[in-house]
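Continuing the series of single-chain predictions for the mutant panel. This is the parent chain; the variants come on the following pages.
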Amino acid sequence: MTTPPQRPGQPGRRGGGAHPPDPATRRLPRPARPDPPTEQIRAERPDAAPTEQFRRPLRSARPPARPPAGGPPRRQPPPQPPPPASGGRPTDDGQGRAAGFFTRQTILLIAVIAVALVAGGLAGGELYARHRADGILVGIAECVVEDGATISYGVNPPFLWQHLTGHYTNISVHTAGDRVQSADGMTADVTLEDVRLQDSAAAKGTIGSLDATLTWRSEGIKDTVAANLPGVGALVTGVSTDPGEGTIILQAGSNSVTAKPVVTEGDLNLQVLDVSGPFPKDTVQTAFDDLTRKLNDNYPLGIEADSVEVTESGVVGRFSSRNASIPREDANPCFARL
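Parent structure:
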């Protein structure tokens, strides 16, 4: 039996030699690294307070709650802040308005708007009161003087207050100048003060004071004499004045009548001084007395003449009345609308 050849170095095999030793391994040197700096730990002072140890919270052994079957839970709205302890400001009403709606600027704006509304209402009331009073008083003045008239009022207190109380402090009347009742070419400027509307069985009120200035132009005197004195007036062709003598001269062609305006017991009269012509002086005086009586008797509210003055353009008379009663419509229809 032939023995197969053996590989050298295999142990356990017959005829095999010992396994040659491995060659010695060479260790490579490590690169030198600088050692990290060591941290110096200071020794604890003996009086240092012990540090507090915090423990980790223990995990709950209870499993987390499962979400409901219907879906994820609804998100809860954040809690609303509590109302302020003081200050009087309203809180949120749930409609998006801020809790501090009434700020200082808002209150100031509301106050300005309120004042503007009140002022606008008062101004509107003032205009309405003036318009209504104009319609009434202008109608009365035009009825009394038988001419156009304009009215103005005092401003203290405001006219609206005067109209509501029925106490007018000052009223001014100015006529158009065409006529004052039967006197053609006459202008009236009248001031009434302390007018009180107090309806009673005897009167509609009182007028504390009334002052009037009547301006009678020379041309108006001629027309008035011609219209009211048919016998004498038809002959009058012109009227001139002499302020130095305080007289008026009525001319009738080559004839003339010289008269002087005078105040007698509250009446304005024409005193005849000279007549040149066919008419006797007494006849002319009687005609003038009838004319002036007609004018004086028609003045309302107890008006009386105080003084008279002859100017370059005519005659100016000043009249007045005190504590006059405003007549009812049965005594004077002109005051029916008051």
